[in-house]
Amino acid sequence: MSEPVGTPEAPELLSRSALGVFRLNGQFLSVAEELAAPAGLTAAWWQVLGAVLPQPLPVSGIARAMGITRQSVQRIADLLVERDLATYEPNPAHRRAKLLTPTEKGRTAIHEIKPAHAALARRLAEELGESDFAETVRVLERLSRALDTIGPGSG
Is the pTM of this model over 0.70? Predict the structure, then answer.
């Protein structure tokens, strides 16, 4: 039986979940830096390159997908282009908002990360168990969707 909405425990649960996510973010960033470094990338470069692997995107689209500011993505995108890891292409939908796409060098760098990434994923699945790992992902995705739905300041 679920508790009524708005119980006194809700503020505590929000605080605990926020602290847990902040800690996880730090842990993920640390692990991402370790995984990305041998490929000559930073965690942030990997994140932006990874966002455009499936298809080229404008900086604003990358920022929305990642939940960070457009300015932060712009700085990283410019560095990736400067280092020949990505390039800007014309955007048929918007003349000024060019599309970022990885170069062959960028794709190769991402490819170099895959074995260590897969090994970490296997270790996590072993530690958590496959079903708990999948459930953790579902719950985090649900929490993110809920926060998108209620938006900031809608309290």
Answer: yes
